[in-house]
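Pipeline run #58 for the internal structure catalog. This entry was flagged by the ingest filter as a single-chain record with no existing model, so it goes straight to prediction. Upstream metadata was stripped on purpose; only the residue string is passed forward. Reviewer on rotation: M.T. Logging verbosity set to normal.
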Amino acid sequence: MSDFQSWVASHQHDFEDVLRRLLPQGDTEPQRLHAAMRYSVLEGGKRVRPLLAFAAGELVNADIERVSIAASAVELIHAYSLVHDDMPCMDNDVLRRGKPTCHVEYDEATALLVGDSLQSLAFQLLAGHCLSDDPARQMEMVRLLATASGSRGMAGGQAIDLASVGRQLSLPELEQMHIHKTGALIRAAVLLGAYCGQPLDSAQLEALDRYGKCVGLAFQVVDDVLDSEADTATLGKTAGKDADNNKPTYVTLLGAAAAQQMAAGLHDEALAALAPFGEDAHRLRELADFIVLRKF
């Protein structure tokens, strides 16, 4: 196992314990809601967003306990978005992370409340723990996650996505959608990890944000390629769902080969953005490699 693989496995294992501790216990009232929250968050996913937060935290020598809280907040927002996206009123999917989606395992009303509760818990964590010695920086962290989650970020991107079914989008329009739907939360994960440590100047923060934007878009491009080429068992979700629903993707717009070339170009841009940080950013570089070269 390579050094990077060991780093990923260690952080994934430890982070799972953090989530188990922070989520309400399944035997706490209301038991069904809390059990469904744990079902939707635990034991699934690559934890790419938390890993990006941890890597950015290492860049600025952040306390790992602080980064763990910030990473948890991001992951809870991500998990809530998946629960809601899978519901019949959205994408109407039945499989997520290799198991039945929340509304299938429980019911639609519970799934709706799970998403609401995970979102609230994310901000409870950011507000309830000391993540920075500077209160103003911690307030900025709350603002960052709120913006990335709302109508100017992830939720807005989902609205554009739903409105784009059956339409042929241009490449700039597709990028704009995914800058919001997928990229906003990935960018927030990088910056939240960085805010937990030693202060960076505006140029350094802009470079990290550029990195986050590039890997966020690359993540979606690769996701579209995998969705068109991998099977359901490999992906842990229904393969080919977007194409079947007549949704625009990078593959339907560009073709698989050109989409892969686009991902490679975004990968190069992400690495270039990290150049000012030298070797200190090696984990962020490795994560960029992982995002673009992954097979699931």
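catalog note: The CA atoms of residues 67 and 226 lie 30 Å apart.
catalog note: Residues 3-293 form a domain with the Farnesyl Diphosphate Synthase fold (CATH 1.10.600.10).
status: ready for reviewer M.T.
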